[in-house]
Amino acid sequence: MHFVLSFEFEPDDPGCHGDLLQDLETCFNDYAFIRALGDTYVIQVAGYGVYEHIQELLLEKARGIKGVKVRFLMSPLIHRGLYHGRMSEESTTRINHLTD
User: Is 96 helix (H, G, I), strand (E, B) or coil?
Assistant: First the structure.
């Protein structure tokens, strides 16, 4: 199973954007994931319990970031699927491997 996770920051300061994403990645870096586009990730998980745990960690981490409002969107758990679009062949291959 997997889900799609996307972030938005306000204000969106390009100077600290990468640092914010790296800090938030610590909430799910124990799982297979790929940064599919800009602020959008595909994360492979074993089930709903892990999904909820990641959500709790993200909420805690986002609330603790001072001076920046962090918003994120988590898709429901997805069991299978292929992703198509305009991205690098390497990204497409890795996403489809995670989601198969």
Answer: helix
